[in-house]
Amino acid sequence: MSATTQTPQKLRTRKPLTVGAVAKNAGALVLAVVFVFPVYWMFSSSLKPQHEIMTKDPVFVFTPTLDNYTTATGVDLFWTYVGNSLMVTVGAVLLALVVALAASFAIARLKFKGRKGIVLVVMMAQMAPWEVMVIAMYMISRENDMLNSIPMLTLIYFVMVLPFTIWTLRGFIAAVPVELEEAAQIDGCTRGQAFRKVIFPLLAPGLMSTSLFGFITAWNEFAMILMLNKDKESQTLTLWLTQFQTAFGSDWGATMAASTLFALPVLVVFLFLQRKAVGGMTAGAVKG
User: What is the rounded distance in angstroms from the CA atom of residue 164 to the CA atom of residue 284?
Assistant: First the structure.
């Protein structure tokens, strides 16, 4: 007589919906609609003919057209503005990453007099509203004959994004166990080689988050470029967008197309890096 045994299976129980869970989900949905709808309306309006934009009743079904984008990109010096924006933004981010890597490593690993004071200064610089420094930056640029200068604007943006970059990367470096670096040095690596081969590969989330923050900050900056670069050939897309609306008046289709072109790089970078970048900002802020 053979006895058969049955293995009991664990029943998966679903948590019952509570009023609190429903309220949170509903609130998240409302917020998503509130924040996403203006972006959708901007993009959809950029594809509509002018007569379908200036109507009393909103038009949701329409035949898309690229005429508005042709008008926007046909403005004089458009591609010059694109090149200037990319140059100052990418240049500022790369400079900030290089300097911040060295500075954050020194703050996180080295013991020296005044270390806590430097950390405090970095925090204060991060919280400072840079708009109040416009006059000082203008005077510095004028005295050095660097008004209407792309390199000067790049340096200013670099200074603006540097404190956050140092503070975030410091947290990531401090989170890496010192034993890993010491083990690499025992195996024959110098301190620089240990940083490059052991610590640097672990900083990818922090590099992504700080790069995203720096890109958004430099790309959207308005006050500095408005004061320092009066020459049209040295301006960026930020000023181009405000002047575009003034030049084309009530051509809302072309204006929405211009706004979409301005926002598109930031949206693409954010969607590509958002998961790792948000985790990077949180981790770098609390570790170390």
Answer: 10
